[in-house]
Amino acid sequence: MKIPRSLKYWFIAHFIIDMIFAIPLIFAPVFTLTYFGFEITEPALLARLVGAALIGVGGTSLLAHNKGPESYNSLLTLKILWSHTAVLAILLAILEGAPEMTWLILATFIIFAFVWDYYKIKLRK
């Protein structure tokens, strides 16, 4: 099975987007969360953990973008689980009154969820 070049580009884009959010969440969590409209009521540990998760998932995208079909299949499964559960978690946060910028985060995860679903189905054929 040949990996579509477009999927390789999506993996690189995923890495870049994850790093854009991850690095500020780790090194400037209060500033980053405040910028997005979140109130900081506890230590920034959770923001840093989210940043670490983004580096793990996004970094794996970069490291694996030239690997074989088995790697892509496994990573697509991981990305599908991550993006779909993130969509659910973000929707719950919106229902509880999350800031308006949360919609942008939701849109990003929905786009990635559709992309990963599309390629998972495409690679099965």
As for the number of domains, it is: 1
Order of helices and strands: HHHHH
Overall pLDDT, averaged? 94
Q: What is the terminal separation in angstroms?
A: 9 Å
- Which regions are unreliable across 5 or more consecutive residues at pLDDT < 50? none
Structural class: mainly alpha
Q: What is the helix fraction of residues, given as a range?
A: over 70%
Give the biggest beta sheet.
none
Large-scale geometry: globular
Number of strands: 0
Binned strand content: under 5%
Radius of gyration: 15 Å
Number of helices: 5
Q: Short summary of the structure?
A:
The chain is mainly alpha-helical and 125 residues long. Helices cover 80% and strands 0% of the residues. The chain is built from 5 helices and no strands.
Describe the fold and architecture.
The protein has five helices and no strands. It has 125 residues and is mainly α. The chain has one domain. The longest helix has 27 residues, at 69-95.
Question: Keyphrases for this structure?
Answer:
single chain; 125 residues; mainly alpha; 5 helices; 80% helix; 0% strand; globular
What's the SSE blueprint?
Blueprint: H1 5-27, H2 29-35, H3 45-64, H4 69-95, H5 102-124
Helix pairs in contact: 1-2, 1-3, 3-4, 4-5
